[in-house]
Structure prediction request, 98 residues.
Amino acid sequence: MLVREISDPRLELIYVTDVKVDKELAYADVFVSALEGRERSREVLAGLESAGGFIRRTLAGRVDLRVFPRLRFHWDPTPENADHVEKKLAELREKKQT
Prediction:
């Protein structure tokens, strides 16, 4: 995994949740999250912005495209939202059983 090649502690325990590339291949919107959740969003995005050039060059060397898109990083709250919904459902199940 490419993140393991970056020695920035801000990028530990993160994962890519989605990538959307525009039709012209000019931009790739990369959505990320971290195991610790939203409280790390600023530091993770800052780390990715800092390493963005390295990430783009490395990926361009590994992916066979004439032009490699510019990367834009975004925080994806979906995992945290899903966790919140799961907790609420578990609470409802528990109440129903009692």
Remarks:
- The radius of gyration is 17 Å.
- Strands lie at 14-21, 27-34, 70-75.
- DSSP finds two helices and three strands in the chain.
- The CA atoms of residues 52 and 74 lie 12 Å apart.
